[in-house]
Amino acid sequence: MEVVNENSAMLSNFEVYGLLTDIQAGRGQNKPNKHQQQLATITCETIKYLETKPCKHQSEESITEFMKELQSFNLTKAEKGQILNLCPTTAVEIQLIIEESEERLTEEQIYKLLDIIVKYNPTEADQEEDNSAEMDSSND
């Protein structure tokens, strides 16, 4: 296999999830033919994996706002991408993602970063609470 057009951009889990669900649904890209069964399996397994990650609940708008809020932390593109994909929940996870975080960020900044992550990446439980609240209000 030969690389025809090299592209060095990183994709977020949200972008990969969107692309693969489009492929699986037959939109945008062609569905794998009978000679590409392995590709179909990889696509299906990757979608299953990504459905357990925060990217399932993200939107383009929330990601844009999230990235705007991260600008004040002077993070690299790779660090921002890892934070977006992994959605760390503890200061230790932040320190593992951000190189030399002890020198670059104060403890207060780390906790502010964690608050921003929670704000733009609700957990599955938060999503279920929102959905049940919407159902209750629509029944009234």
UniProtKB/TrEMBL annotation:
Q: Which residues belong to any copy of the RNA polymerase Rpb4/RPC9 core domain?
A: 1-124
Q: PANTHER family under this entry? A: CALCITONIN GENE-RELATED PEPTIDE-RECEPTOR COMPONENT PROTEIN, DNA-DIRECTED RNA POLYMERASE III SUBUNIT RPC9
Q: Which SMART domains match?
A: RPOL4c (SM00657)
Give a short account of what the protein does: DNA-dependent RNA polymerase catalyzes the transcription of DNA into RNA using the four ribonucleoside triphosphates as substrates. Specific peripheric component of RNA polymerase III (Pol III) which synthesizes small non-coding RNAs including 5S rRNA, snRNAs, tRNAs and miRNAs from at least 500 distinct genomic loci. With POLR3H/RPC8 forms a mobile stalk that protrudes from Pol III core and functions primarily in transcription initiation. Pol III plays a key role in sensing and limiting infection by intracellular bacteria and DNA viruses. Accessory protein for the calcitonin gene-related peptide (CGRP) receptor. It modulates CGRP responsiveness in a variety of tissues.
The entry describes its oligomerization and partners as: Component of the RNA polymerase III complex consisting of 17 subunits: a ten-subunit horseshoe-shaped catalytic core composed of POLR3A/RPC1, POLR3B/RPC2, POLR1C/RPAC1, POLR1D/RPAC2, POLR3K/RPC10, POLR2E/RPABC1, POLR2F/RPABC2, POLR2H/RPABC3, POLR2K/RPABC4 and POLR2L/RPABC5; a mobile stalk composed of two subunits POLR3H/RPC8 and CRCP/RPC9, protruding from the core and functioning primarily in transcription initiation; and additional subunits homologous to general transcription factors of the RNA polymerase II machinery, POLR3C/RPC3-POLR3F/RPC6-POLR3G/RPC7 heterotrimer required for transcription initiation and POLR3D/RPC4-POLR3E/RPC5 heterodimer involved in both transcription initiation and termination.
**Which UniProt keyword terms apply here?**
Cell membrane, DNA-directed RNA polymerase, Membrane, Nucleus, Receptor, Transcription
Q: Which family is this protein grouped under?
A: Belongs to the eukaryotic RPC9 RNA polymerase subunit family.
Which GO biological process categories is it annotated with? transcription initiation at RNA polymerase III promoter
| Localization of this protein | Cell membrane; Nucleus
Which GO molecular function annotation, any one, does this entry have? Answer: nucleotide binding
Q: Mind telling me which InterPro entries this protein's record contains? A: HRDC-like_sf, RNA_pol_Rpb4/RPC9_core, Rpb4/RPC9, Rpb4/RPC9_sf, RPC9
Q: Which superkingdom does the taxonomy of this entry point to? A: Eukaryota
Query: Topology relative to the membrane, per the entry?
Result: Peripheral membrane protein
Predominant localisation class: membrane
A GO term from the CC aspect = RNA polymerase III complex
Q: Which Pfam families does the record associate with it?
A: RNA_pol_Rpb4
Q: What is the name of the protein in this document?
A: DNA-directed RNA polymerase III subunit RPC9
